Amino acid sequence: MPVFGEDELKKVLLELLENDFDIKKECQGTHRLYGNPVRIDFLLYPKDKLIKVGFEPCWFGIEAKHFLEESKSEMARFLYQCITYQQSEFNIVGSLIRPEFVLAFSNKNQETIIKETDYWYSWYGMNQLAALANVGWFLPKLDNFGTTIGWTMRFSTSNHFSRKGNDYKKLEHNIRRYVGNCSK
């Protein structure tokens, strides 16, 4: 999946999603606590074929970001951006909706970072914290030749839903709203 910038990254993302979801692009909204205007790259709603195999009938968001290098501070800001979008409301077809979850999509993710490095450990910790705020990752599934054959939605280290070819799978991780004590 060669990607050269954020516009190309968004094109790849749309190609992966268009057959499975209804997609709204560049959606304007408002942060519920501070009232600041926000804009998320995509809001999506599953098509009936996904709902029939267990995908929750809900709106969710995806934000795309292309990184030129591995930067802990840039990754932290990107994940926080996704968290604030999950806390925001967007006007979709005359109704205010809050995304059930937000997924990050990037050229830097759990699959591309070299394990056992300082960056990987920092990223892993940020990823766990983001999952508690209902922020996960959208990851393309690649075959051994680098051809995209599907996708996975992952929260921290738990997969939530995936597609491989025409096979859709709801996996063990359910989306939960964490508030206050998150020990259970």
Task: Kindly describe this structure.
- This protein has helices spanning 6-17, 48-51, 72-86, 118-132, and strands at 21-31, 37-46, 60-65, 88-92, 95-97, 102-106, 135-142, 148-155, 158-164, 167-170.
- With 184 residues, the chain is an alpha+beta fold.
- It has one domain.
- It has a 10-stranded mixed sheet with strand order 5-4-1-2-3-6-7-8-9-10, sandwiched between helices.
- The longest helix has 15 residues, at 72-86.
> Which secondary-structure class do the elements indicate?
alpha+beta
**Segments where pLDDT lies below 50 for 5+ residues?**
none
Rg is 16 Å
Record field, number of beta strands: 10
Labels describing this entry:
184 residues, alpha+beta, 10-stranded mixed beta sheet, 4 helices, 36% strand
Sum this structure up briefly.
The chain is an alpha+beta fold. The chain contains four helices and ten strands.
Could you give the topology of this structure?
Layout lengths: L5 H12 L3 E11 L5 E10 L1 H4 L8 E6 L6 H15 L1 E5 L2 E3 L4 E5 L11 H15 L2 E8 L5 E8 L2 E7 L2 E4 L14
Parallel strand pairs: 3-6, 6-7
Antiparallel strand pairs: 1-2, 1-4, 2-3, 4-5, 7-8, 8-9, 9-10
Helix pairs in contact: 3-4
